[in-house]
Amino acid sequence: MSIKNKKIVGKVSPEGFRCKHRHSGLSHPRCYRRYLSGKQENTLKLPKILIFDIETSPLKAYIWATSVWNTNVNEGQVLSEWFMLSWSCKWLFSADVMSDKLTSREARNEDDSRIVKNLWNVLNEADIVVAHNSDKFDVPNMNTRFIVNNLPPTKPYQTIDTLKIARKQFGFTHNNLNALARVFGFKVKLDTNFELWKRCIDGDEEALQRMETYNRHDVTLLEEVYLKIRPWIHSHPNLGLYVDSIEPVCSNCLSTNLDKTDKFYYTPTGRYELYRCECGAYVRVRSSSVPKNKRKDLVVSVAR
Q1: Using an 8 Å Cβ cutoff, are 138 and 146 in contact?
Q2: Residue 172 and residue 132 share a domain
Q3: Which of 6, 170, 200, 240 is most enclosed, with most CB atoms within 10 A?
Q4: Helices 205-229 & 177-184 angle (0-180, nearest 10)
């Protein structure tokens, strides 16, 4: 099956739009309507932020243990390696979702080379990638399939792991994507069970199509979750580095609507003016407001 929507042809959402007055489509709906009709351009040149997810096959192996929990599986016990069944992704704020899946023959032959190469091509365009459990699953597993299929490393990109952020910043009862979506009031994941994965590796075309649909739904859901928690991401890549702007922009969302607060952000040797963005994130200036003569007299605690 050929890659779907390889070229992004849709319009961005109101949040991803900036008119000539530097307002979003929400605050300047008239400008946004002109953009939709082709009479005005989007002046906001966003970094390429890719929301993505992959689905893989299970590993087939013989095991000796009567309990499968924490069972060691030696190399000789492995019957067949895992491989990629499908992938899906979208550029942030784009209405278009890209995806690819194995054909029936490719699944039976455990040959994911075609869809892996297509994913590699998309990743090479990204500045930042967002995934749920990206740092422990999606990125290392994706890289594994790249090198197995004789592909070189992709262009460097920064990662945002929404699972890691959920665990660090909050105390949700469960941190999986479906649980977060339910807590936030979004549509939940599509119902699946292990039978779907079994049918996919057997080359069932209907199951493979269902897997791709499931994968695409996860990506749209992930985008909603990412935007919901984005103001809370203190380690968010600084988007201001990716754009040319004559005025300060929010490091998390690129908005210029920053309100100065009467509070400060403190480090052991500095005090910085604190701003609140319309997205909810707090940002600070880079220059300390502590006078130079006072900085010379400051002492700090001894590191352990």
Answers
A1: no
A2: yes
A3: 200
A4: 60
Q: Are the C-beta atoms of 81 and 109 separated by less than 8 Å?
A: no
Q: What is the DSSP letter of 137?
A: I
- Spell out the SS3 assignment of 215-250: HHHHHHHHHHHHHHHHHHCCCCCCHHHHCCCCCCCC
The pTM for the full model equals: 0.84
Instruction: Name the residue among 178, 180, 203, 181 with its Cα closest to residue 191.
Output: 178
Domain that holds residue 265: 257-304
304: DSSP letter: -
The number of domains in the chain is 2
Asked whether residue 39 is domain-assigned, the answer is no
Rounded to whole angstroms, how far apart are CA atoms 117 and 146? 8
Task: Choose the final residue of a domain: 183, 215, 232.
Answer: 232
3-state secondary structure of 115: helix
- Asked if residue 9 is part of any domain, the answer here is no
Residue 53 in domain: yes
Residues 87 and 221 in one domain: yes
Q: Provide the pLDDT confidence category of residue 7 given band limits of 50, 70 and 90.
A: very low
Angle value at C-alpha 176, between 113 and 172, nearest 5 degrees:
160
Given pLDDT bands bounded at 50, 70 and 90, which one contains residue 9? Answer: very low
Q: Are residues 85 and 127 in the same domain?
A: yes
